Amino acid sequence: MTATPVGSRTAARPAGGGLPARRAVIRWAVRLFRREWRQQLLAIALLTVAVTGATFGLAATWNLAPSSDATFGRADQLIRIPGDDSAALDARVTAARGWFGTIDVIGHRHVPVPGLFDPVDVRAQDPAGAYGGPMLALRQGRYPAGPAELAVTDGVARALRAGLGSRVPLGDADRLVVGVVENPADLHDEFALTDPAHADRPQSVTVLVAGDRDSLEAFRRTVDGPLVRESRPLAERTVLTVAALALATVGLLLVSLVAAAGFVVVAQRRLRQLGMLAAMGATRRHLRLVLLVNGAAVGAVATVCGTAVGLAAWLIAAGFVETAAGHRIGRFDLPWLTIGAGMLLAVVTATAAAWWPARAVARTPIMSALSARPPTPPAARRTAVTTAALLAAGLTALVLSDGSNPPLIIVGSVCTVLGVLFVGPLAIPALAAARGGLPVAVRLALADLARYRVRAGAALAAISLAVGLSAAVVVGSAAAEHRSREAAGLGNLADSHLLIRIGQPEPVIPERTAAEMDALQAHANTIAATVGAATVIPLDMAVVAAHTDPGREGGPTGHPAVEIGAPAAAGESTTSHPLYVVNPGLLRLNGVAGIAVDADTDVLTTRTGELALMNIPARGVRPTVRTLPRSGYTGLPDSLITPAALGRHGWQPARVGWFLAADHPVTGAQLAAAQELAAAAGLTIESRREQSSLTALRTGATVAGVLLALGVLATTVGLIRGEAAADLRTLTAAGAPRRVRRTLTATTAGALALLGAVLGVAGTYLALAGALHRDLDPLGAVPVAHLVAIAGGLPLVAAGAAWLLAGRLPATLSRRVLD
Description:
Helix content: 40-55%
Oligomer: single chain
Largest sheet: 10 strands, mixed
C-alpha cells in the first residue's frame, strides 16, 4: 500500500481555484445582474442613449459627404470646352470621342429670363448617357422630346412660376414643361433640361470621359486652344470614415465615463457581498471579475438596444439629413463595418469602465468592505499633477498643430479633454470647501459630493464631456460661420435692398433714347413704390462711346462698359467688377458721404491689390485708386469712377439701373410683385440671397448636450441620494420637512450641472484657442444665446427638476435594505 503525501492534491490544484472557481464567480455575477438589473436601469438607459447617438452619428456623418457624382457622374475625368467658336467646339468633341472612345456630352446654354437676375442653365443631356446617369433623375412627368418641350428642377419651376403642363418663355420661344427633374447627387443644382437632339447651339459643353489623369493630359497636348479639365477627387467618405471613427471614439469615452459613474455605485452597493466573498477565500482577481462581468452584461444590453434604436432613428430622420446634405441618400447605405466595430468597442469600453471600480473594491480590506466604509479618495496632489501634465501636453500639441496638422490636433484634443475631465475631482472639494454660511441642507449636499467624490467625479466628467461636445459644435460652427462671412461677405445685399438693372448684366451697354429712359425711370419708380423704398439711387456706368461692341451672340450691340479687376497674364482669365459713376447717393451708401475727392483720383473702390481698367481698347491701364471701407455686402455698388476720370478718358455715363433702399426688410410678396413689374418692363431685380446659417445646428447641439447631461445627472443624483439614505433617516427623525429633501437633491444636481457646464465650456474654448492661436478673431463671434442656455440653463433645469421630483418620501426611509 502506497501512502499519499499530505497536501499533494492541494498542490496540484491551480491557485485560486482555477477555471471552476472563475466559472462559479461568473455565474454568481450574472445572477446578481439579473436580480439587480432594475437598480442599473438608469445606467443601461444612459449607455443605450450614448450608443444610439454614436450609431446615428456614424450613419449621418457617412451620408453627409458631398458626392463627386454630382459633377462627374460615373466618369473619371471631365473636360469643359467653350462654345464661342462652333467649328472648334465640334472638332474638340470629335477629337475627344476618337481619343477616349465612349464619351458623354452635356451642353450648357445660360438663357436670361425677364425679371430674374440669374440666367437659367438650359442643359442638353441624354438621360441614357454613358456616364451622366447619376447626375439626372426624373421626379415627375417625363423627359423632354422635341424642340418645344422642357423639363425643369424645382427651383427653376418656382423661379419661372411654372408647373407640369404650363408653357414658359425661355429663349426665343415658349416651351411646354413636361417633367420635373433633379441632380440626385446635388439637390441645389438648378437647371432646365432639353432634348439633346433638338437643343440650341450650346455656349459650352462638359465632356465626361473614363481614364486616368495621364491619358487626359496626353489628350490635352493634342488639342489646340484652352481646355478646362478636372479629375474626380478622392472619395470624401474615406476621410469621413476616419472622422466617424474619431466621433465614435469620443462617444465611447462618454460611454465609459457614464458607465464608470454607475459601476462605482454598484461596487459600493455590493461592498458587503464582495467582502463576504473575500472572507470565504476569493482572490482579488475573483472580486474584479464580478464587476467586469457586470460591466460586460450592461454593455451588451445597452449596445444591442442602442444600435437598434439608432438605426430606427436614422431611418426616421434620413429624410431631414438628405435635405441638409443636399443629395439623395440610400437609407441602408451605411458604414456597417464601422457600426459593428462601434458595437464591439461599446461592450469593451463598458467592461473597461468597470475595471477601475473593480480594482478599488478588490484592494479594499475585508473589514472595511464588511462595514461598507467608502474607500479613501486618491490624494488631490497626484490628481493635480496629472491634470497639469495632460493640459500642458494637449495645449502644446494644439499650438504646434497650427490648426492644420491632423495627428497633432487629435493628440492635443484628447490630452486637453482628459486634462479637463481630471479637473472634476479637484473642483468638487473646492466647491464643498466654500459651503460655509449656507443652509444646513445645502452644506450637507455639498459635503456628500466631496465624501463620494470618486463616483461624483466620474459623473462630473461625463457631464463635462457632454457639455464640451455640445459647446464645441456651438462655438466651432459660430467660428466657421464667422470665417465664411468674412470670406464671402454678409451676402450680396441687405434684406432691405434691391438692385434694379436694365436688361441682364452685360459688359456692353446699348444706346437708348430719352423716351425709352423716361419710361424705364417710371417703371423703376413704380417698383420703388411697390416695395416702399425710401431711397432710390440712379446707377450710371462709364462707357467708351467711341467704340461699338457687337455684344454676345443674340445680344444687342452697344458701347463697352468700363470695369475694374486684377490684371492677368496673356491667355489667362480674371474676374472684373462694374464701375459706377460717383454720385452723392453712392457715397452715402458706401459710408463716405461728403468726402473730398482729389482731382487726380480715378477710382474709389473697396477692392485691394493691383488693379487695372478692363473692357476698354487700351490694355494695362492702371488707375489712381482711393480705398473705400468694406461693407461686407458683395452686391453693393462699391467700385466708383470719378467724373474727372471720365473727362480725362473721354468716356460717357450711361444709365444701367437703380439701387433701392427701404427702411424695412422687403417681404416675399413685395419682391414677387416687383419681379412681375420688372419682367413686364424688361428689367431685372437682384435681391438678397440668404446665406446658409448654422443656427439650427447650434440649437440642436445645445438641446442634445443639455439632455445628455440631464440624463447623466438623473442617474448620478439618484444613486448618490440613495447612498445617503442614512443621512435622510437622521434628518427625518429630527423632524426635517420635505423642503429639506428637496434642497438636498436640488443642490446636488445644480452643483454637478454648474461645474460640468463651466468645465465643458472652458475646456472647449481652451482647446479651440490652442488650435487657432494665430487667428483668434473667429472665437470673437460668441454664440451668447446658446452658451447661456448651456451654462445657465442646464444648472437651472437640473436644480428645478430635482426639486420637483424629490418631494416623495423614499421607501428606504421606512425600511432598511438588507444585503
